[in-house]
Amino acid sequence: MQHSPRAGREGDVLAVVSQSGPTVSFFDAVDDRHLGTVELPSEPHELCFDPAQRLLWCTTAYRSGYYHANGGRRTELTAVDPDARRIVEVIDLAPEHGPHGLALDAARGLLYVSVEGSADRPGGVVVIDTGTRRPVGRIDTGAPGPHWFAIDPAGRWGYATNKEAPFVSVVDLRRGTLTTKVEVPGSEGLAVSADGAHVFVAAPYAGSFSAGERRPATGIRVIDARTASVVDTLPTRNVVLPVHLTATGKLLVGEVRAEADPVSRLGRQAPGRLTVFSAETREELGGLDVGRFPLTITSSPDGRIAYVACVVSSTVHLVDLETMRELTRLDIARRGEPGAHGLAYLPGPA
């Protein structure tokens, strides 16, 4: 008999950022009740949950807008208590700016935050001690705009995707140095396999949606971590931004469907698509339509439910990955454009 996808989630919470809210909202993982909202500094982006500290980390990248179309870069990283639903501290990373991607090494108590470059230094990754909530290092990535960042399960290697730069930056986390550049034609989201052997990278860079623009074939580049080279490409129908790997080895990718629009640089948005691959066999397992412009994906710890945040429609779509059916849709409050962005699944306190 098939078990309910909601079984065993009592006490668990889903956290969702509204970029124009600017807020993080909390929802019961069993019945989707709205539990509360915390106001954040303007234009929050990504979320990362630290179970050891019971803190929710949130980056604030811009004063308004988005990458290459913003009203100035911000410098804040916000720590939120998700149980009390209050801000614990706002950490100013200046002179670093444009913080975006987050990756946690819980075993070593380190949080990695990607930051954009400036005239006097390339983009990089700021290293935060999660106990003191203070920066303890910086790793250059050799590109102006590292946007997404992921680490391998052993906490030895980090991977930064770079929108315009034609490579993925590989950094040695123990030595704090850039070691390799893997040739990729501009890149977006990424995920590292559970054994650290492969990195799955969305490429090319979404860029603009100008009419007649030619791009390399869209899809997921598979990087062999040992040789630091692309060994395969999983084809997609459209440009991909978010990539997520579940605990059960399903690779989730968010495809953006857009037509050229003379008014909006992002194009005229149609419903996006969640496409599912097997990370092991690299076969496509299925997919379904979601909201407009899927930008962030996460999943439940058991890998049963996918959560897809769509920033233009400001919706979060909950998908049963066994039946490939949508369970429900959350409408995320916003005060303008854009809307739903960062996601984090929070298991209940022990």
TrEMBL record:
It comes from the Bacteria. Gene3D superfamilies: YVTN repeat-like/Quinoprotein amine dehydrogenase. InterPro entries: Host-pathogen_enzymatic-act, N2O_reductase_N, WD40/YVTN_repeat-like_dom_sf. PANTHER family: DIHYDRO-HEME D1 DEHYDROGENASE (PTHR47197:SF3), PROTEIN NIRF (PTHR47197). This is YncE family protein. It comes from Streptomyces pactum. The lineage of its organism: Bacteria, Bacillati, Actinomycetota, Actinomycetes, Kitasatosporales.
